[in-house]
Amino acid sequence: MTDMTASHAALEPSRSDKFRQRTVPLILFAVVLLVIPLFNPSRSMVTLLNHMGITIVFALSYNMLLGRAGLLSFGHAVYMGLGGYFAVHVMNWIAEGTGIWGSVPMFSMPAFGFGAGALAGAVIGWPSCRRAGTPFAMISLGVAELVAAAGFMFDSLFGGEMGISGDRMNGPELFGLSLGPVDEVYWFIAFWTFIGVLGTYAFTRTPLGKLSEATRDNPERVEFVGYSPQRVRYLVFIFAGAFAGMAGGMSAVQDEIFTPENLSLIPSGAILIATYVGGIRYFTGPIMGAIVMTYMGSNLSDYTAGWLLYLGLMFVCVVMFLPDGIAGIVYGTADTIRQGRAGEMWRTWMLRLVGLALVGAAIITIVEVAFRWSDGYGEVFEPFGLQLTVENPLTWVIGILSLVLGILALRRAAKGGGK
Amino acid sequence: MTLALELKDLRKSFGPAKIIQGVNLQIEKGERHAIIGPNGAGKSTLFNLISGRFFPSSGEVKLNGEVISGKRPFEINRMGLSRSFQVSNIFTNMTVRENVRCGVLYSMGYGMSFWRNIGNLKEVSQKTAQILDEVGLLDKANLPAASLPYADQRTLEIAITIAGGAEVILLDEPTAGMSHSETDRAVALIEKASQGKTLLIVEHDMGVVFGMADRISVLVYGEIIATGTPEEIRGDAKVREAYLGEDAQALEGVA
Q: Residue A221's domain is classified under what CATH number?
């Protein structure tokens, strides 16, 4: 206690550390968002990017629960859906233009979604946040089913199976954006994605954000330092709902439609997978997961009808072998390079890649051949001009031999082999 | 005299098992009070009843004259009672500094605020650094708590407990499993940290108990069989009877 100010200053990260670790990544992210349009992406590419932005905010809001607070929710799409539905309704009020609605800019939809998501979180979280762990997960599942069922029942609110659609080209323009063409929508999405990233990151730096991590680690101890774990969870839940609702508001403007499907377990499961595959222990994990999964979802489905199966396999493999997800690989590799051990690492990595390629080739062959055969239309899987039919022995050589070889290579890599 | 803590006919049963069978205890402000007793006497249960982890089956607990039995642990903590755990109960995924900061936050009035940047809370940072300095963990402040050696984890446990500045401190076997030198350091720390505060301590190390406590209570089968100064306890026939064998020699050893 001799020199309080000195010791206190030494504990905290220095000003330059803070700038390097916190401000610089945010600036880089903003720069990336600003630079992307300079490459003149195609319309379908911009649409894909817009969906990535929406999913990034959604995944970050989900990780406020899963990664930071340790709450496994099976129904997070409920909050994005309700926020989005409210935004679509507001869009239609703006279109009518009566009263105050005539002066509400379309650009502000995510803010409305934010409010609606927070409200939904406050109402639904009240009973469900009383317990953590399995009861919380079960309640979230029940709520998701309940809300999705209600979505199909109350037509005036949710529009039945057809959903409710809106038109984004109404109301006053903000920043000179009519939001008509999709590249103008890009700026809208980019702005709100940045706000979403900034907001969810700022949340991790607040006392409540820190307490949510403490509650995840040790809810009992939290009680004995003066906090109610239920209250902490409840407040975090409201914020997670709010940011999910914000993603809903972004989606409402981008896609101009919301259907009860958006409230169901399917998007809830998808965001769980995206967040987990990205890596729940890192703030940037959900961002990476959102980008990869959105990309795969839109592109893989062009190549094969079995893409959901591959997605499922990948998810299972990540859970089993890469619990820190994509972010874990990225940061782990960066650490190794920084420690100057890149040389010994790349051989293991090569072995791992070869193993993955072999296993991948085997699984793809088996899956593609199998469901062409089960279709019964006589279609043949023809990669690189090979005629891989069920009768062709080559099919089974690839299927079994490369699977075995690939697994052997992966096992060797896991033991640190290949040095 | 003003009482910091008062237990009135406190009882706790788990089904047919009567663990605490009518404990009466009065602890004055500023007193260092130790509870000793053989294994299974109900010492930890007594702590759990006082700190709100368990609700008593009957009887009441008063903190500074106010009834606290039936309140939740976080409410009791906010009223100025803090406890440590026999098995280290820390936030393992956080750094040492973040652990202590969790203990500091509420007492500094930052509750569950979500509109402040925790890094900008100067008083919180200073108080955290001061606590870390006091317990001697300053040089390990930025290590993950899970990576600390056992004795340091026990110290961190105490640090979190005293971080909130509670007036009444309950320590559950703070020196359990420590070596002699570690125990000496822990005792010095406890004496410093409990200066001007009320301390209730459960401890197996008789050297620690008889060296530090103003008064001692002996708990046997859920009942207090004797309360008094270390000299009175040492000479008490009932206590000697309860501590047959090895522990009786331990009593002699510090006599």
A: 1.10.3470
CB contact under 8 A, B105 and A220: no
Tokens of A217: 């680690």
Is the Cβ of A232 closer than 8 Å to some Cβ of chain B?
Answer: yes
With beta carbons less than 8 A apart as the criterion, state whether B96 and A219 touch.
no
**Together in a domain, A371 and A288:** no
CB-count burial class (<10 Å; 0-12, 13-18, 19+) for A393:
exposed
Tell me the Cα Rg of chain B. 18
Alpha-helix runs per DSSP H in A154-218: 155-158, 182-204, 207-217
- The pLDDT profile of chain B, 255 residues, written as one tens digit per residue, is 688 999 999 999 998 888 889 899 999 999 999 999 888 888 989 999 999 999 999 999 999 988 998 899 999 999 999 999 988 889 988 999 999 999 898 888 887 788 788 877 888 888 898 899 888 888 888 889 999 998 899 999 999 999 988 899 999 998 888 888 889 989 999 998 888 899 999 988 888 888 899 999 999 888 898 899 988 888 888 888 777 555 555 665 554
Q: How far apart are the first and last CA of chain B?
A: 29
| Separation in Å, CA of B119 to nearest CA in chain A | 7
Given CB atoms, is B119 within the 8 Å cutoff of chain A? Answer: yes
Last residue of a domain, one of A294, A320, A350: A294
CB contact under 8 A, B74 and A221: no
| Distance between CA atoms of residues A122 and B52, nearest Å | 28
Domain count, chain A: 2
What domains lie within chain B, and their CATH numbers?
3-254 (3.40.50.300)
ipTM comes to 0.86
Say whether residue B114 is in contact with chain A using an 8 A CB cutoff.
yes
Name the amino acid, one letter, at B170.
L
Statement to judge: residues A279 and A354 lie in one domain: no
A347 and A289 fall within a common domain = no
Nearest to B50 by CA among B95, B84, B91, B16: B84
State which residues form the domain around A177: 24-294
CA distance A212 to A197: 18
Nearest to B89 among A7, A209, A220 (CB): A220
Does the model's pTM come out above 0.80? yes
